[in-house]
Specification:
By secondary structure, this protein is mainly alpha-helical. It is built from 23 helices and 8 strands. The radius of gyration is 22 Å and the shape is globular. The structure holds iron/sulfur cluster (2 copies). The site of one iron/sulfur cluster has 15 residues, from helix 2, helix 4 and helix 5. It holds the Pfam family CCG.
Length: 482
């Protein structure tokens, strides 16, 4: 009957029928993100670190929360009771799980099967990544349109039209995730050696913090590290993937295409270290290199890349040089490069979840503290270092739902911790975390920005502090940086 509303119980039944069908499809297709879910023995190790659980006060004191809602549901052939709207895609669950079960990956796979996020998908097809306008609601929602316009004019989207066309041709003929096999555990990563040359990635999120990108280039130059960039590089697919706009295989193909671009940017032979300011990018490359190290996976990827005349031949030639691994190799040089010690600046440090995901441990690595200490800033530690900041995905969701100022419970915990410790600034390794802190009214600097300030960079021209939403001036004025 036209126009008749479907009664709520029927709607629920239809929804369940669709989603249970999706689960059967996923299980049948053996999506790599679901493959080891049967190993979950409901130990509960993941639950205390899950922001989704923190955001659900009813789950406090319930160690089986995630296992019951996700892995046990799958084992019974039902849809997991947690969806992408609740999960912030931090992957703390995967990182901490002794059996390498990825609750976040399962939720991502279910969401991908049910519906990709059309708005982010469209941007990937139109622009090969997240262009500035992807972030526009985050500025207009808080009355910062002028800052957005100033950045959009001065820092235009960097990808070349030919690169966007190649990315589009890849994405328009999707490859099924089940075509790939991934190991159930992370391979041991080789310790990074001082590289002769690096490729510096343009990160989509750098639009919000151009100072982090400019500072990174300044530091590389000051350390005498030769770096290349390319306008043929597009988004790695990481951020859209975690926000539901790119599937598992889409992200892999986009990253693999970029590896081919990076390879072309250097003369043949030798190792190529891939750096950048974003740990989500680092994780995309580390994960892709792992998948591509298997011949069967590489054949599938190269078959798709052949459509655009590209190929990845030697994944072993690449290494991932995240700033938290790269710059600690140069601590003595950095100390000598410091012109203005930031003595008197009280800072907290927050290491991103995706950096820890890449390394397979929730332990807080020393890199960020060591680099911060080089500047002379005073670090105050906190138990909150082990937690997600609240996540970029949650930030986008709030704006999309018309509640930009409504902080999640985790956001409120993080902000209260900052205030209780009487800090001036938070220091982070991720432009996504930077965006989250900035949006909750916490002055924040990317580690590259902090280092550049100590090395005498112009706060406005290079570090672009005027582009931050929460003013850094009170903290920096106090220590004589204007
Ligand atoms: S997913 Fe892993 S950490 Fe979480 S309950 Fe299952 S086995 Fe334990
Ligand atoms: S990815 Fe993060 S938010 Fe999602 S279930 Fe895992 S720990 Fe929770």
């Amino acid at each position: 009957m036209p126009g008749r509303a479907i009664p709520a119980p029927d709607q629920e039944m239809i929804r369940n029928a669709i989603t249970d069908g999706a689960i059967r499809h996923l299980l049948h297709e053996e999506d790599p993100r679901l493959r080891n879910f049967r190993l979950c023995n409901a130990c509960g190790s993941c639950t205390p670190y899950c922001p989704a659980r923190i955001n659900d006060p009813g789950a406090n004191g319930d160690p089986g929360y995630l296992a019951r809602r996700v892995t046990a549901a799958l084992q019974a052939g039902r849809r997991p009771g947690l969806d992408l709207a609740e999960c912030v895609q931090c992957y703390s669950c995967e990182t901490v799980c002794p059996r390498s079960v990825s609750i976040g990956g399962i939720i991502n796979a279910v969401y991908e099967t049910e519906r990709l996020q059309p708005v982010f998908r469209r941007m990937l097809l139109d622009r090969g990544g997240l262009p500035p306008r992807a972030f526009l609601p985050l500025y207009t929602g808080r009355g910062h349109l002028r800052k957005f316009i100033a950045k959009a004019i001065r820092y235009p989207y960097p990808a070349d039209g030919r690169a966007i066309d190649e990315a589009r041709r890849l994405l328009l003929r999707p490859v099924d995730a089940s075509a790939f096999s991934v190991p159930g555990h992370l391979p041991l990563r080789q310790p990074l050696a001082r590289p002769d040359r690096v490729f510096h990635l343009n990160s989509c999120c750098a639009f919000n913090y151009p100072g982090a990108d400019l500072s990174q280039k300044m530091i590389l130059a000051a350390l005498g590290i030769r770096y290349e960039t390319s306008r043929m590089q597009t988004c790695c697919g990481g951020a859209p993937h975690y926000m539901g706009g790119a599937g598992f295989a889409d992200r892999l193909l986009l990253t693999a295409r970029n590896l081919s671009v990076i390879h072309d940017a250097f003369e043949p032979g030798g190792e190529i270290a891939v750096t950048g300011i974003c740990p989500t990018c680092s994780d995309s490359y580390a994960a892709a290199l792992d998948v591509l190290s298997h011949n069967a996976n590489r054949e599938v990827v190269n078959e798709a890349l052949a459509r655009i005349g590209r190929e990845v031949t030697d994944p072993g030639a690449f290494s991932v040089a995240n700033v938290l691994d790269l710059y600690p190799l140069y601590l003595d040089e950095l100390r000598r490069l410091v012109e203005t010690r930031l003595t008197g600046l009280a800072v907290g440090v927050h290491v991103s979840c995706h950096y820890r995901k890449m390394n397979g441990t929730l332990a807080v690595p020393p890199g960020l503290q060591d680099l911060t200490a080089v500047t002379g800033a005073k670090i105050t530690r906190s138990v909150m270092e082990h937690y997600c900041c609240g996540g970029v995905k949650n930030l986008f969701d709030r704006h999309r739902n018309g509640r930009p100022g409504e902080l999640s419970r985790l956001n409120r915990l993080v902000r209260r911790d900052f205030m209780n410790r009487r800090l001036d600034v938070m220091v982070v390794d991720c432009p996504g975390c930077e965006l989250v802190y900035d949006h909750m009214g916490v002055p924040v600097l990317h580690i590259t920005e902090l280092l550049a300030l100590a090395m005498g960079a112009d706060p406005r021209e290079t570090v672009c502090i005027q582009g931050h939403l929460t003013s850094l001036s009170p903290a920096l004025d106090r220590i004589g940086i204007r």
